[in-house]
Design goal:
The protein has helices spanning 3-11, 36-39, 45-52, 65-68, 74-86, 91-99, 104-111, and strands at 24-28, 40-44, 125-126, 132-133, 139-141, 145-146, 153-154, 159-160, 164-165, 172-177, 180-185, 189-191. By secondary structure, it is α+β, with helices and mostly antiparallel strands. The chain has a 3-stranded antiparallel beta sheet with strand order 8-5-12, with no helix packed on it. A 3-stranded antiparallel beta sheet has the order 9-10-11, with no helix packed on it. It has a two-stranded antiparallel sheet with strand order 1-2. α5 packs across α7. The longest helix has 13 residues, at 74-86. The chain is globular and about 50 Å long. The model has no long low-confidence stretch (mean pLDDT 88).
Length: 192
């Protein structure tokens, strides 16, 4: 059974965040380490677009989190926490955050994208051109890089998809080159 079929069965063929039944697709929640059922949710086009593009966020659309934050699935709760944290300047979201319970592992995952941190606290990752990098972005290498601990050389022009960000250092990102997960210095990549 395909992942989308499993997610449709789990969700009753509706968005796991807002319960819409239109334009549903799989959303792998960054930073993805496992993917699959535990790392993905079934989301509608509106929810996924607003998650990925904070500038398009419609506060009233996210009142649906009042229900979805109680999901039995950790992946849904993690995304609900992120969106409530993004909207915490709204009065109603803080009340929901105060009621919400996430176990330590899920809370760590929810915080992994930096959602909920004050602007001054966030570590900002920038590529060689100064463009801000987000978890899940795709980048391309701007020079050949020797991979420490192996004989592999990652060639200039190699695309690295679905990067994850180092939470403690703005110069480091992680991504897969071939089958190997490597740490890359941000000054050697350009966002696609």
């Amino acid at each position: 059974m395909s992942l989308i079929a499993q997610l449709k069965e789990r969700s009753g063929s509706q968005c796991e965040l807002c319960t819409s039944t239109e334009n549903l697709k799989v959303y792998e929640v960054p930073p993805v380490s496992t993917g699959g059922m535990d790392g993905s949710l079934l989301g509608c086009e509106v929810c996924i677009d607003q998650i990925e593009n904070p500038d398009t966020t419609d506060t009233n659309h996210w009142r649906c989190l009042n229900d979805s934050m109680w999901s039995e699935h950790e992946v849904v709760k993690a995304v609900a926490w992120r969106m409530l944290s993004r909207l915490k300047s709204e009065g109603w979201t803080q009340d929901l955050l105060d009621m919400m319970y996430l176990d330590d592992e899920t809370l760590k995952w929810a915080k992994a994208t930096g959602e909920g941190e004050e602007a001054g606290e966030k570590i900002v990752h920038r590529d060689v051109n100064g463009v801000v990098l987000q978890a899940g972005d795709s980048v391309v290498l701007v020079k050949d890089l020797k991979v420490k601990g192996s004989s592999m050389v990652a060639k200039q022009g190699t695309a690295v998809r679905r990067i994850s960000l180092d939470r403690e250092n703005a110069e480091y990102i992680e991504g897969k080159v071939g089958a190997q997960q490597i740490v890359i210095i941000t000054k050697y990549v350009k966002k696609l």
